[in-house]
Amino acid sequence: MTLIDGARAIASDLPSSVTTTLEVPLEAGDAEGTGIHRHSSLRLVQQRVALALHDEQSPVIMIGGDCAVSYPAVRHAAALGSPGDLALVWFDAHGDANSVETSTSGAFAGMTVRALADDGIVAASRIVLAGTRAWDDAERRWVAETGVHTIAADAIGAAGPVLDAVRATGASRLYLHIDLDVLDPAEISSTAWAEPFGASVDGLLAALRELRERYVLAGATIAGFSPRDPESTAGDLATVLRILAALTARGSQPRDGADG
Question: Contact, 73 vs 62, CB < 8 A?
């Protein structure tokens, strides 16, 4: 429910003319024999996202919810380009790289990256995990075996590391997923699964600006805004809006002769 509150709080500060709200079912849902918790509800949300994006050719920013919302959005962005031209930069404290077989929770949010790769939407070699610091053993093995690029949280914002990792993918377009728990808990408190030793807000903003200056933005997600009380919401909402501004700033198109 706090994720719903977070999405509504962000929406209240955005122009209604450029905002589409998709309702999320509140019923428990059923695994439908998949091993994925609440699979029926997730399937319904993915169908709603796909329908909303069906005729959309411009980059779309998904806001609110957990990391599972990026699956249909990345799939849509990938379909708009040429095969192999999309890289996924996943800013997140967690790898989200479990499979149904390795997940202990059954939560699809913790499987989204792996599913995008396994389903052929984005090759593992074109995925960059940035700021991940809470790993399951199975996730570490999968990353090592498949060539997923990783960037430490304290390297986000430093000149070079994120950009070098994206350059190594050979892609020209980027999907940027930002789970707010990539940030250090001292920087933001309105996250559900906070992890210490995260990135700074300034570092994340610097990385986003650098990427946007050099690559075509195919889409983005801001996920995980989960305010627990009115006192923390205002300050943390300002941080979210700074991230959104970095993603939508005019004049951030790729420079001539740059990578994208």
Answer: yes
Mean pLDDT rounded to a whole number for the chain: 92
- Write down the pTM of the prediction: 0.94
Q: Which residues contact residue 89 at a Cβ distance below 8 angstroms, ignoring those fewer than 6 apart?
A: 128, 130, 162, 166, 174, 175, 176, 177, 211
C-alpha gyration radius of the chain: 17
According to the model, what pLDDT value does residue 26 have?
A: 80
Task: Give the pLDDT confidence of 151-194 residue by residue, as tens digits.
Answer: 999 999 887 899 999 999 999 999 999 999 999 999 999 998 99
What is the 3-class SS of the chain, one letter each residue? CHHHHHHHHHHCCCCHHHCCCCCCCCCCCCCCCCCCCCHHHHHHHHHHHHHHHCCCCCCCEEECCCHHHHHHHHHHHHHHCCCCCEEEEEECCECCCCCCCCCCCCCHHHCHHHHHHHCCCCCHHHEEEECCCECCHHHHHHHHHHCCEEECHHHCCCCCHHHHHHHHHCCCEEEEEEEHHHECCCCCCCCCCCCCCCECHHHHHHHHHHHHHHCEEEEEEEECCCCCCHHHHHHHHHHHHHHHHHHHCCCCCCCCCCCC
- pLDDT over threshold 50, residue 255: no
Tokens of 196: 């210490």
Mean pLDDT computed over 208-237:
92
